[in-house]
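Ticket 4471: requesting a sanity check on a complex prediction with N-(5'-phosphopyridoxyl)-D-alanine. Repro inputs:
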Amino acid sequence: MPRIAYVNGRYLPAHDALVSIEDRGYQFSDGIYEVCEVRGGAIIDERRHLERLRRSLDALRIRLPVAPSALSVILRETIHRNRVRDGIVYVQMTRGVARRDFAFPPPGTAPSLVVTARSLDLAGNEKKAQQGITVVTVPESRWARPDIKSVSLLPNVLATQAARDRGAAEAWFVDRDGRVTEGASSNAWIVTPDRRVVTRPADNGILRGITRTVLIGVVKARNLLFEERPFTVEEAYGAGEAFVTAASQIVMPVVRIDDRPIGDGSPGPVAKALRESFHRHAEWS
Ligand code: PDD
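Returned structure tokens:
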């Protein structure tokens, strides 16, 4: 079965799903994206993801190229045509196609819209969560607005590759004060030795993850102590547990940071419990 992508009004086999070399996403990374989890054929937290998509578009002054209701239909149709039950749906919007010029193109230029969907290996992910992943730290090297979910991801690409080169799954960015900002494609969390769950405030310096937002509700519902504050790499090394959150991974325990075992070096009970309860708190649609 060929993979099908939605591209500017048409559903096409992946090899015919092409965008122009003058698309501003290709030329300037002038665009934004969203990734939603698909589980049992349902979209998880769609409303929150589409709200964030609107905020990213507004920040870049790109208009939504279709009605919100039409976008929901396109997401479902793309999921359906790719027969995805458990996986992700990806949406990308750019400022459209125009002759290369740094300033915005003429007002009538239509933004580009691409949607793809693919299956994820649920059992494989579950196995990964039982083992936990390793993380390395890298200096924060991004622009000042990581809160915009833009497709300008070069520092994230380089950080992820640095992690892979060192045998790790994820990289954590660390600012000049030695504080962890977030992962290359996830939010970063620790659990202190006295079981307080800590994650950095979602200011302009990180992406306000949807998984993060929902999980804060789970933490509170389970009466765990929660602190939204910066934490340093040193504090993370000495944490009882660590984990990352993202739509594609939900809660993924971290068992080593820079070759130092976290806690007893295996996934901790808080991360495991949060992972198990997440989907009862998320919105299914
Ligand atoms: N990444 N921080 C960064 C830099 C991210 O790229 C992501 C998600 C997150 C977590 O956000 P959410 O919980 O809304 O998925 C945090 C997606 C999954 C990606 O780029 O593939």
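Notes from triage: The mean pLDDT is 98. Leaving this open until the requester confirms.
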